[in-house]
Amino acid sequence: MHVSVIGTGYVGATTCATLASMGHRVIGVDVDQQKVAMLNSGRLPFYEEGLEALMGSLITQGSLTFTTDLPKAVTESEILFLTVGTPSQSDGSADLSYIEEAVRQIGRHLDRYKVVVSKSTVPVGTGDRVRAILEAELAKRGVVIPFDVVSNPEFLREGKALHDALHPDRVVIGCESDKARAMMTELYQGVRTVMLYTSVRDAEMIKYASNAFLALKISFVNELARLCEKTGSSISKVARGMGLDSRIGPQFLRAGIGYGGSCFPKDVRALIHLGKQQGVPLQLLDAVTSINQTQAPWFLQKVETAIGPFSGKRIALLGLTFKPGTDDIREAPALAMIEMLQERGAEVSAFDPQGMEAVRQIHPQVKMATDAYGAIDGADAVLLVTEWPEFLDLDWSKVRKRMRGRWILDGRNALDGDKLRASGFAYACVGERRSE
Ligand code: UDX
Question: Which residues are in the UDP-glucose/GDP-mannose dehydrogenase C-terminal domain (predicted)?
Answer without folding.
Answer: 316-417
